[in-house]
Amino acid sequence: MTWRVRDLVLVAPLFACGLTGPSSSQDEVREIPLAVDVDPDSATVAIELRAEWTDREIVEGRSTPALTYRDVAAVSDDQPPLPGPLVEVEVGQTLDVWLTNGLPDRETTLHFHGMRTPDVLDGNPLVRPGIDPGRTVLHRFVVQDPGLYWFHPHMFADEHVELGLQGLVVVRARNEPRASRERIFVLDDVDLLPDGSMNVEPSHEDHHLGRHGPTVVVNGRAGGRIRAVAGATERWRFVNTANGRHFALAMAGHRFDVIGFDGPPLDEVASMDVVELAPGERRDLLVHFDGAAGTLIQLETLDVSQGDHSGDWERTALLTVELVPGDPGEPVEARDFLRPVERMSTADVATRQVVLEAELHDGDMPVMRINGAVWPFGEPMEARFGETEVWEIQNASELRHPFHVHGTFFQVIDRDGVAETLVAWRDTMPIGPRETVRIALRYDAPGRWMFHCQIPEHAHMGMMADFIVRE
Ligand SMILES: [Cu+2]
Question: Are residues 209 and 265 in the same domain?
Answer without folding.
Answer: yes
